[in-house]
Structure formats: C-alpha cells, structure tokens
Write a structure and sequence with these properties.
The protein is an alpha+beta fold and 294 residues long. The chain folds into 2 domains: 5-123, Aminotransferase class 4, branched-chain amino acid transferase, N-terminal domain (D-amino Acid Aminotransferase, Chain A, domain 1), CATH 3.30.470; 131-287, D-amino Acid Aminotransferase, subunit A, domain 2 (D-amino Acid Aminotransferase, Chain A, domain 2). It has 7 helices and 16 strands. It has helices at 31-35, 53-66, 75-88, 131-136, 164-175, 218-229, 274-286; strands at 11-14, 17-20, 38-40, 43-46, 49-50, 94-102, 116-123, 138-147, 180-185, 190-193, 197-202, 205-209, 234-237, 249-254, 258-265, 268-269. The strands form 2 sheets. Strands 8, 9, 10, 11, 12, 13, 14, 15 and 16 form a 9-stranded mixed β-sheet that branches. Strand 8, helix 5 and strand 9 (180-185) form a beta-alpha-beta unit. Helix 2 packs across helix 3 (75-88). The radius of gyration is 19 Å and the shape is globular. Bound molecules: 4'-deoxy-4'-aminopyridoxal-5'-phosphate (PMP). 4'-deoxy-4'-aminopyridoxal-5'-phosphate binds at residues 42, 192, 195-197, 214-215, 217-220, 253-255.
C-alpha cells in the first residue's frame, strides 16, 4: 500500500519553517477543519520550475480574500517558499500543494481573530489518470450535484468547502466504473468536472462553458491560448447537456489532469481525435521550463 500522506518523507514548509512531513500537524480544534475555512492550490513543477507558479500564488491570496482572510505572506514570499521546499526535497517533477487556513483562537462561526496559517507540501506525482487512458479517453458520469449559484457559495475561490460535492460526485462515479463526473451548474448548464474544466469540439471549433460559477482554471486559460496560436476558434458560451451528441471530441483540463481526452459522458461517445491530441502535445511542450534568454 502507498505511504499515507501524513507519513510521507520529505519536508513541509509550515508557517515559515521547514519541518519533517510527519511532524507537520495541526490541532483537531482548528477552524479550517470544522468550518472549511481553508483555501488551497494545486500546482505542478516541470524540470524544477512551477508552471504559472506566480499566478497560482496570486489565486491563493485571492481565494483567501474571498473567504475574508489575508494570508500573512506576499505573493513573492509564497513563490520563494514553494521553490525552497521543492529544492530541499530534491524534486523537479512534482505536485505542489499550498494550503492556508484559519487556526484555533476561536472555534465558532465567527473567526475574526484567528491566526492564518500557511503550509506548502510537495510530492512526486505522475499523470492524474493512467497515461494510456489519457490518450484513449476517460469515461465520465453525469453528477447529481450541481455547481452552486455565485449567490450561494464563493464559487470562484479555490476553497476547501466547494469540494464537498466534488468528492461525493467522484465517489458515486467511481462506484459505477467511471473515472470522474461531469457537473452541471445551478442553471442546468454544463459546468466542469470535479477537479478539471471541460472542452468540446464541433466542426473544427472548440466550445467551452463560460466560467461564471466555477474555477477558470489556469490550464483552461493556457489551452485557450494554445488553441489561439493554432488559429483554432474557442467559443466560451452557455452549453446545455442536450448538445453533447453534437460534439465530436471532448477533453478536460487541469493542473493534475493536464489535457486528458474524454471518450464518453454517461452513454454519449466521443472520438479523442486531432484537436485533442494536438493540444495535449502543445500543452506538454508549453509546461517545459523555458531556457533562459541568451
Ligand atoms: N475546476 C476545479 C473544481 C478544480 O479543482 C481544478 C483544479 N485546480 C480546475 C477546475 C482546473 O484548474 P487549474 O487548471 O488551475 O488547475
């Protein structure tokens, strides 16, 4: 069995200090645990460089602000801490997980005076989905839960509480033999997967849901840029589930999933084809660290 995360070797950056992973503990009476007052990031280092690392740090700070707290480190300090922990752990190709949360000074709904903590962990992590599957395409179920109305939840933050419905939906999908689930939004429009954004291809053009009530992923933005460089039109719009049969290809994007083809959504088949493959290759090239200019 794989080593559990709380016993993983290597150092974790915790509130400004590097501590051995198994010692990076918090108390059970922590606000972040009881009230989901926690925000986090998922990042990847390729060849020792974190892809769009500063934008991840900015998003982390912004997610905290949405939850009404301030991380007591600047974007530059967070960037430096991420690089330090990668270096100290001797990792080049790795997943990077910063998390910030409210501490233990108050343990009720109100938490005005709680100290804000920040931890950064890194670990070696290959493809999210099996690599052969990534090319063949994964199968998605349709989730029962819907992405909430922006008036119901802080849906543009990468906040721990928003993942409650994602874990339930992913578990239900896995129990039925699917890799993941596609979620609709509160209006019944196609939204995203439990931890990745979704794209479709129709007549040589890419269509993707407007990110107005779910995370506008950095991988999503990268793929839109890459498609632009290939002169492939990308249309961000309202997509209803009854349109699924009109799309020829489907793929999902995320730091963990990278670009992964989808072969089926709840009985509707897609052909992981030319555009998906092209963008998978372009994304792989894009994330490689750029050689310093001469
Ligand atoms: N949506 C959700 C719910 C996610 O968890 C993620 C992964 N962070 C994404 C989309 C994709 O975001 P990114 O490309 O920035 O990793």
């Amino acid at each position: 069995m794989a080593v559990p995360f709380d016993q993983m070797e290597g150092l974790i950056w915790l509130d400004g200090k590097l501590v051995p992973g198994p010692d990076a503990k918090i108390h059970v009476l922590t606000h972040g645990l009881h009230y989901a007052s926690a925000v986090f990031e998922g990042e990847r280092a390729y060849g020792g460089t974190i892809f769009r690392g500063t934008e991840h740090s900015e998003r982390l700070k912004n997610s905290a602000n949405v939850l009404d707290f301030e991380i007591p480190y600047s974007v530059a300090e967070i960037d430096a801490a991420k690089t330090l922990v990668l270096e100290k752990n001797g990792l080049k190709d790795a997943y990077v997980r910063p998390i910030a949360w409210r501490g233990s000074e108050q343990l009720g709904v109100s938490a005005q005076n709680n100290k804000i903590h920040l931890a950064i962990a890194t670990w070696e992590w290959p493809s999210y989905f099996d690599p052969a599957q990534r090319l063949r395409g994964i199968r998605l179920d349709l989730a029962d839960y819907r992405r909430p109305d922006p008036k119901t939840a802080p849906c543009l933050a990468k906040a721990a509480g928003l993942y409650m419905i994602c874990t339930i939906s992913k578990h239900r999908a896995e129990k039925k033999g699917y890799a993941d689930a596609l979620m609709l939004d509160w209006q019944g429009r196609v939204a995203e997967c439990t931890g990745a954004n979704v794209f479709f291809v129709q007549d040589g053009k890419i269509h993707t849901p407007t990110a107005d009530c779910f995370l506008d992923g950095l991988t999503r933005r990268t793929v839109i840029e890459l498609a632009g460089r290939r002169r492939i039109d990308v249309i961000e719009r309202r997509i209803m589930p009854d349109e699924l049969p009109t799309f020829s290809e489907c793929f999902i994007t995320g730091t963990a999933a990278e670009v992964t083809a989808v072969s089926e959504i709840a009985g509707r088949s897609f052909n992981p084809g030319g555009i998906t493959r092209q963008l998978m290759d372009d994304y792989t090239a894009e994330v490689q660290p750029k050689a310093a200019a001469a």
